[in-house]
Design brief:
F-box domain-containing protein; about 475 residues; LRR_dom_sf; elongated; 14-stranded parallel beta sheet; alpha/beta; coiled coil; 16 strands
């Protein structure tokens, strides 16, 4: 009955719709197939385009001036960039290896670029393994950074770095208020032998924030050793805040020793201090900053340093008589250079009263001295052979007057002076001319180094060249 009601035309319409749907479905399938084919072709085109662009960039980069540098020169440029790394920024060697493929190849195949191993909370053992693999047989510099966080390396880190001990050239440990990581680190190094190690440096944060050592630390100080099996090439030892008694490796090759603000509980006695200084016949450079020894030296104490060439003493407030105590106990017949920093005249009185002559001394540098006129006179009497004198003084008029006006025929200050540096004083040019004329009848002054422009007849006037910063630790001049 339904078919009869719709009629034959309705049946034809239904069949026409089905045909249309089938035809449209066929067209959709064809288009989707064509789309898939085109997408595959597009992917191939994009891949080819990327390769061509990369090839184009590589060829174009080689036309740049830097691209014409030999690989060896570019590697040296990378090394210089690595040495200028900014703390906290991405390391230069990593940046250079991600610029272009040629740079990456050069960077990765330059072992010295990867020779600094930094151990910090952000350092993984995988990163250390990558650096060690790329450094190959290159000597290594280890930098432990415990200054910012209370943190110690995990066992995976130790298992990665300790097998490389025969490649270590330098060991730097930066500590913060909590020194537990320092002692843990040194305990891991106790039984090792570092056959190529040349330098050990322990730095610390703000001295005012340093926490005292715990009882456990004292136990370590009295029993453990650092590189107990030896470090025969160790030449430089810098200790800030922590002394560690006599537990360092044999120091028979030390040529440079810097001691900086040793904590009261770890300062050695004068006898132990002498043992440390005389342990190496090669010691040529000694820097003392603040209190580094306990008590007063015995009346008969003598520290013989036959090869000492350079001595630097920096005071603190209050320093007491540390400067004069050290100078009085030293026997340094070949000392050439002496630097005194932040020393007041009372610090030197016992030394100057001792009348010990430093005949070999030819270079004297005074940073911000608080001296009386008589202090200068007695100092120059004690050091009669000064030929190079550097003075950093904001009010140098009294000192200049001493160089300008002889006291008596029997005393002429610094009679061998040929090179005088003054900073940042701004003396009247007449003062300088009088000094030059006054000295011309003895040993003429040859060079003036000033923090100002001056035209002084008969003398070469050069810019003042700031002395190097205090050993290993930056300072505000």
């Amino acid at each position: 009955m339904l078919e009869f009601a719709l009629g034959p035309n309705s049946m034809d319409a239904t069949e026409g719709v089905e045909d249309t749907l089938n035809r449209l479905q066929t067209e959709i399938s064809c288009l989707e197939s064509d789309k898939s084919t085109l997408l595959i072709q597009l992917e191939r085109l994009n891949s080819s385009l990327s390769r061509l662009k990369a090839r184009y960039g590589t060829v174009k980069n080689r036309t740049a001036l830097v691209g014409g540098l030999p690989n060896e020169i570019l590697a040296k440029v990378f090394e210089a960039g690595r040495d200028l790394d900014v703390p906290g920024a991405q390391h230069f060697e990593v940046l250079a290896s991600h610029v272009v493929s040629m740079w990456r190849e050069i960077a990765i195949t330059t072992p010295s670029l990867w020779s600094i191993l930094e151990v910090s909370p952000s350092t993984s053992s995988d990163k250390l393994k990558t650096y060690i693999a790329r450094a190959k047989a290159c000597s290594l510099e280890l930098r432990f950074n415990f200054a910012q966080e209370v943190w110690v390396p995990d066992q995976f880190v130790w298992e990665t770095i300790l097998p490389t001990v025969d490649q270590w050239r330098s060991l730097v440990i930066s500590t913060g208020p909590d020194e537990s990581a320092l002692y843990t680190t040194l305990a891991h190094l106790e039984s090792l032998r570092a056959s190529l190690l040349e330098e050990i440096s322990i730095k610390r944060g703000d001295s005012s924030s340093m926490a005292p050592a715990t009882g456990g630390h004292h136990g370590f100080l009295n029993s453990a050793h650092c590189f107990h099996a030896g470090a025969p090439l160790l030449k430089i030892l810098r200790l800030e805040g922590t002394y560690l008694s006599s537990n360092w490796p044999p120091l028979t090759s030390i040529s440079t020793l810097d001691l900086h603000h040793l904590r009261r509980s770890t300062r050695p006695s004068w006898n132990r201090f002498r043992d440390l200084l005389v342990s190496s016949l090669q010691l040529s450079s000694l820097s003392i900053y603040g209190d580094v020894v306990a008590g007063k030296p015995g009346s008969n104490l003598e520290i013989e340093l036959p090869n000492l060439r350079s001595l630097r003493i920096r005071g603190t407030t209050p320093l007491g008589n540390r400067a004069s105590d050290l100078l009085l106990t030293l026997s340094a017949p070949n000392l050439r250079s002496l630097t005194l920093f932040d020393i007041i005249y009372t610090d030197l009185d016992p030394f100057l009263d001792g009348s010990q002559l430093f005949q070999s001394l030819t270079s004297l540098t005074l940073y911000w001295p608080n001296f009386l006129r008589t202090t200068y006179i007695r100092l120059f009497e004690t050091m009669p052979s000064i030929s190079h004198l550097t003075l950093m003084h904001r009010k140098p008029e009294e000192f200049l007057a001493l160089l300008r006006d002889p006291l008596a025929p029997s005393f002429f200050p610094c009679p061998h002076l040929i090179d005088f540096a003054l900073y940042p004083g701004n003396p009247h040019e007449g003062y300088l001319e009088d000094i030059v004329l006054n000295r011309a009848v003895h040993v003429p002054l040859q060079v003036l180094r000033l923090g100002m422009h001056a035209d002084v007849p008969g003398v070469q006037v050069l810019p003042f060249d700031l002395p190097p910063s205090w050993p290993a630790w930056p300072e505000q001049l």
